[in-house]
Amino acid sequence: MNKVELLAPCGSLEKLKIAVLYGADAVYIGGKKFSLRARASNFSMEDIKEGTAFAHKHNAKVFVTMNIVPHDEDFNGLEEYLKELESFKVDAIIVSSLYIASVAKRIAPLLEVHLSTQASTLNHLAVDAYKKLGFDRVVLGRELSIDEIRKLKASSDIDLEVFIHGGMCVSHSGRCMLSNHMTNRDANRGGCAHSCRWNYDLYDEGKKLNDSCYFNIGSKDLAAPNFIFDLLDIGVTSLKIEGRMKSLYYIATVVRCYRNLIDKYYEASFDRTKIDLDYYFEEIKKAENRQTSIGFFNGDPKVTEQLYNIRSEEPTKDFLAIVNSYDKETKEAIIEVRNYFEVGSTIEAFGPKLENTTFVLTEMRNLEGENVDVARHPLEILKIKIPFVVSEFDMLRKK
Amino acid sequence: MKKIIVDYKKGMFFDTLVNNNVYGVILNSEEYSLNPLDGLKIDELLNLNKELKKYNLKSFINVDRLIKEEEIDEFVSYFKKIYDLFDFYIYSDMSVLTMVNDYSKLIYYPKTYISSTNELKAYSKLNIKSFLSNELSFEEIEDIDKANIPYSLEVFGFHQMFYSKRHLLSLYKEWFNIETNVKNKELFIKEELRDEFYPIFETDKGTLIYTDYCYYLFSELDKLNNVDMVYINSAFIDLNTYLYVISLYNELISDGDTLELEKELLSIGYKLDKGFLLKKSVLLKNSGGESDE
Predict the structure, then answer these.
(1) Min Cα separation A85/chain B (Å)
(2) Which is the most buried residue in A109, A349, B71, B121, by most CB within 10 A?
């Protein structure tokens, strides 16, 4: 049986390692050029090379996003860039430009070429057309229901990738000019100003229709644990998580959650009626600071899929530290602090091979061996007692 | 010679168009075009197509919206009924490529994607004509023009800047119990910190948001040598004004006095703006995106 690919976003080399270790079968990253998500695209060529080697060592693939809608000035160095990615053994590029795809096929034939969701591909004939144009995989638009994906897959013989989690463009992807018109920042070249999440008033012939609340058009993020088994039944190639801008903790939590869920499906004793999906939603909530919904998976979105009364979205401070190492004899872990905690805190540890396990922090020291009551400096290295074995890259969070 | 193409609007006389050297008329499919107004049922399309031929006007059918899998079978049936009858097919869903043998009748108009010489070339190699993106500066259009590949431009009209499959007005109406009808009707949205009123329109196909101004590329047209077709968009423009605008573009293309004609265009009573022509948008601003790869 071909196992589905779990595809995770990575905005840095550290996140790439975490995604792979927490269970991603493939990761997608952006280089300095040709990629949307400007702030997320912080992989130097050296990082791409190192990240690809790391991922391959752990049997994971690396896809590089080159998904801008390019203008003339954006093509400088394209061929060299593609050749270099190929020489690093990057597995695929994700593009929306037919031209970039054709150059990649000619210059760097070992790279697979995946059609970006920016192309908003929503039916099997469009998929066929892109296949004939040389694409190896199509990332489907997010406006399809599960039934439509099933029908589309039944009529297609090309790899299909489906978003299962993360932010949703409320516009058809690649077709939005709101940001550009309103702020001169081109969303199709990485400058999206999130204009769809702003507050608007709605008018009819000069009369304001919204009295008590702003008119909003934004959508909730997608969270699809309850559709994973359907997608696996359908046989799509890849399940994709959105969010190259997301934190290390978010990546670890969400990837681990979907990894676990997918693995259950392939167990011999799998019985979907016995899977407690609430557990997975609760797990995701621990790292999620935005409202989620099911997008189009059950058909046209209803009011429950829309984002009204937009609240501010503060990053969660539940992520306390990441483990650097653990001494089994002294039961002491060296950790890197991320958020405030103190002796006496109840902490949950989790990791790629560590089930959620709780302990109360009794002892904490700095590297000079002095006792510390409070961890308040992000990135500070401390030693803490943990009564069970933890490993490098395990994480600690508030319980 | 640049060819003028225009939308069909009810009440329009074709001889007026002929007198203004119009090359062809776009018939907007009620079911499959994104034009929120002036959509035509298939019988109307077929009848108008015959009429256009009598006037020696080219017929363009507009089926430029994206098609979902649940709609694709119906779209194929629809397309079979119209294929080969019209002179050109304006589309943005790539499924169309699987339904025709002769790509030379296709005009790709996805609004954003054709933003470079290379992209234009890629489609031209397939023998597909393309509209350039509406997000280009004039300098960028001039650079593309130098490639000697024919292309089309939307030179006038309210630009669509947002296209969602979601029924955003109906959902909001439901959520907040608004009594006013919001469907198939031009409403406006205003961002809390800005003064502009953007037209918003919901149909069965989804929700569209337009610029608050009517875009015009006019005096600049002289400097472009490889524009094949210039499209004058009629959305939200009344018929008389629309015909007047067509006449101004005809005079411009026929070597009229550019400055005088532009003055006349600026006095039509709509808010006009040159959009991105004079302001280059920002590449890779240090910002996050919403939700894509």
Answers:
(1) 18
(2) A349
Place of tokens 């595809």: A7
Task: For residue B288, name the pLDDT band (cuts at 50, 70, 90).
Answer: very low
Share above pLDDT 90 across residues of chain B, in percent, rounded to a whole number: 86
- B100 occurs within a structural domain: yes
Total domains in the fold of chain B: 1
Q: Out of B118, B163, B209, whose CB is closest to A172?
A: B163
ipTM over 0.85: yes
Average pLDDT over residues B251-264: 94
Which conformational region is residue A38 in: left (phi greater than 0), alpha (psi within -120 to 50 degrees), or beta?
Answer: alpha
Residue B174 lies in a domain: no
- The residues spanned by each domain of chain A are 5-305, 319-398
Out of B95, B144, B188, whose CB is closest to A203? B188
Q: What is the pLDDT of residues A334-366, one digit of tens each?
A: 999 999 999 999 999 999 999 999 999 999 999
Chain B: residue nearest A65 by CA?
B293
Q: What is the CATH number of the domain that holds B134?
A: 3.20.20.70
- Residue B185 in any domain: the answer is no
CATH code assigned to A319-398 = 2.40.30.10
Q: Which residues 13-42 in chain B show a CB within 8 A of chain A? A: none
**Sign of the alpha-carbon torsion through B33, B34, B35, B38:** positive
From B249's Cα to the closest Cα of chain A, the distance in A is 25
The bridge status of strand A364-366 relative to strand B88-91 is unpaired
Domain A5-305 fold is: TIM Barrel (3.20.20)
Q: Is A132 in contact with B97 (Cβ distance < 8 A)?
A: yes
**Percent of residues, chain B, with pLDDT higher than 70:** 95
How many angstroms separate the CA atoms of A223 and A372, rounded? Answer: 39
